[in-house]
């Protein structure tokens, strides 16, 4: 069969790589893909942007694609699955109505409240009804969030009331365009974060392996927020008991609630969880897609056929399949371009990829492109080096052997990915 993966980051490289590993799959098309997907066996890049729904439907028809998997949230929130479904094409992901869970944090917070799912106390404002006195009455730190999609950058942890007020006003004034028309302000929750990602078919749930990412740019989890500087799976904070609790208190009521409200969710559902000191799994966010970079270590551990799982979900049969996992830990380190997460320098030639390919582990490409046979940087998060090992520490060692083999001018990465998990191990 032919599979189409939509997107061009590290998550999509990993999705395409997992699909290509299936003996059922003859070819994986990736739109638009990157230098990694351009050079893998059984893969072919299609130069169509992930946002061009019409062109994607056209190519899926013309190429007789039997399964499409959408990577990024933008096309999902815009209704790409609705367009594929209307054309009679199998496409794994939530439709537009279900994807609103990620597309509007204001909507998400109301949904959580309606269903009694644990989350930070919050209020939602527009510039018309903004109430600075409400803000002044809160304790700091306060978390200020643009309600719409802001590429992971629309969250400010404000240490003072003045900073919270200024952040909200900047969002109303257009810092994140339309995404800041509504602003959610919520209490700061201390604790340890985990990413809990499941597949859902509208009714049934298949949990994926747990994972945890490092969102801050600098070592020790300091510095500006990013899309993620590294991730590992499993996440030791998600013990067996915590897994059961997250399923019972968060995932099951969410999937049930969405179905009951007439917006059943099919696709990857990602809950960003802050585990409180008393063990309460508070929802920080929902994403209607896989995480990047969580996907790279998660799929490195998946030994089941991903295309079989997606097809079972599309048929409403997720209760009849199971996912098998490599028992080892996987850990991915993001190598980012100079300047990330602000404006980045691109166009640098990446050296050492061939030597790295002979080492154990796997490098997934994100912001790369192929030009005259050379791999050049073309985005902020350039590569994700994934190692496997019997412990997180061993997986980390393998991942850093890969990053050490690769270089370009201005490359930056954290040296401490996985340190919390390693502290729990020892
Ligand atoms: P979000 O996009 O809503 O997940 O926020 C991005 C990041 O900001 C999260 O991964 C957390 O690290 C942090 N964050 C968001 N909301 C809160 C909160 N209420 N308390 C503490 N940290 C938060
Ligand atoms: N790594 C966080 C995300 O994909 O949203």
How many domains would you count in the coordinates?
Answer: 4
Computed Rg = 21 Å
* Overall number of strands: 22
Beta-strand fraction estimate: 25-35%
Briefly note the CATH topology name of the largest domain: D-amino Acid Aminotransferase, Chain A, domain 1
Count of individual helical segments: 15
* Average pLDDT number: 95
Summing up helix and strand content along with how strands pair, one would put the structural category as alpha+beta
Tell me about the biggest sheet? 5 strands, parallel
Q: Report low-confidence residues grouped into runs of 5 or more.
A: none
Q: Any guess at the CATH architecture of the largest domain?
A: 2-Layer Sandwich
**Bound heterogens, unique:** adenosine monophosphate, glycine
CATH superfamily of the largest domain: ATP-grasp fold, B domain
Shape type: globular
Short recap of the structure:
32% of the residues lie in helices and 27% in strands. With 426 residues, the chain is an alpha+beta fold.
What does it look like?
- Strand 1 (2-7), helix 1 (10-20) and strand 2 form a beta-alpha-beta unit.
- By secondary structure, this protein is α+β, with helices and mostly antiparallel strands.
- The chain folds into 4 domains: 2-78, Rossmann fold, CATH 3.40.50; 121-187, ATP-grasp fold, A domain (Dna Ligase, domain 1), CATH 3.30.1490; 192-320, 2-Layer Sandwich (D-amino Acid Aminotransferase, Chain A, domain 1); 329-425, Glycinamide Ribonucleotide Synthetase, Chain A, domain 4 (Alpha-Beta Complex), CATH 3.90.600.10.
- It starts with a strand and ends with a helix.
- The mean pLDDT is 95.
- The protein contains 15 helices and 22 strands.
- The longest helix is centred in the middle third of the chain and has 21 residues, at 240-260.
- A 5-stranded parallel sheet has the order 3-2-1-4-5. A 5-stranded antiparallel sheet has the order 12-15-18-22-19. A 4-stranded antiparallel sheet has the order 6-9-7-8, sandwiched between helices.
- The chain is globular and about 60 Å long.
- Residues 120, 143, 145, 155, 186, 188-189, 193, 215, 225, 272, 274, 284-285 line the site of adenosine monophosphate (AMP).
């Amino acid at each position: 069969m032919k599979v189409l993966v939509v997107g061009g980051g590290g998550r999509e490289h990993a999705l395409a790589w997992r699909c290509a590993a299936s003996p059922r799959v003859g070819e994986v098309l990736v739109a638009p893909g990157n230098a990694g997907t351009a050079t893998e066996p059984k893969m072919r890049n299609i130069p169509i942007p992930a946002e061009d729904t019409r062109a994607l439907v056209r190519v899926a028809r013309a190429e007789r694609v039997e399964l499409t998997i959408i990577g990024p949230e933008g096309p999902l929130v815009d209704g790409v699955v609705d367009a594929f479904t209307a054309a009679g094409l199998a496409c794994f992901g939530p439709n537009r109505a279900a994807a609103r869970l990620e597309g509007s944090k204001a909507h998400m917070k109301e949904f959580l409240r309606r269903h009694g799912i644990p989350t930070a106390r919050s209020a939602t404002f527009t510039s018309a009804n903004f109430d600075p006195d409400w803000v002044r009455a809160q304790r700091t730190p306060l978390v200020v969030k643009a309600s719409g999609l802001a590429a992971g950058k629309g969250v400010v942890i404000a240490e003072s009331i003045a900073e919270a007020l200024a952040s909200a006003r900047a969002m109303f004034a257009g810092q994140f365009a339309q995404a800041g028309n509504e602003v959610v302000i919520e209490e700061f929750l201390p604790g340890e974060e985990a990413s809990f990602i499941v597949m859902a078919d509208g009714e049934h749930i298949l949990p994926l392996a747990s994972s945890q990412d490092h969102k801050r740019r600098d070592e020790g989890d300091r510095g500006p927020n990013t899309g993620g500087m590294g991730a590992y799976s499993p996440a030791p904070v998600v013990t067996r008991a915590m897994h059961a609790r997250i399923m019972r208190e968060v995932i099951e009521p969410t999937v049930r609630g969405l179905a009951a409200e007439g917006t059943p969710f099919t696709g990857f559902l990602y809950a960003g969880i802050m585990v409180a000191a008393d063990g309460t799994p508070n929802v920080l966010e929902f994403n209607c897609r896989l995480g990047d970079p969580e996907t790279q270590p998660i799929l490195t551990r998946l030994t089941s056929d991903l295309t079989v799982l997606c097809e079972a979900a599309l048929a409403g049969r997720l209760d009849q399949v199971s996912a098998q996992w490599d028992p080892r830990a996987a850990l991915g380190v993001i190598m980012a371009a100079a300047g990330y997460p602000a404006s980045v320098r691109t166009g640098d030639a990446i050296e050492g990829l061939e030597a790295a390919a002979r080492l154990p582990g796997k490098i997934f490409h994100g912001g790369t492109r192929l030009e005259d046979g050379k791999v050049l940087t073309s985005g902020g998060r350039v590569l994700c080096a994934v190692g496997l090992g019997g412990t997180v520490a061993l997986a980390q060692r393998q991942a850093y052997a890969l990053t050490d083999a690769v270089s370009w001018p201005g490359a930056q990465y954290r040296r401490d990915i996985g340190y919390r998990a390693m502290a729990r191990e020892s």
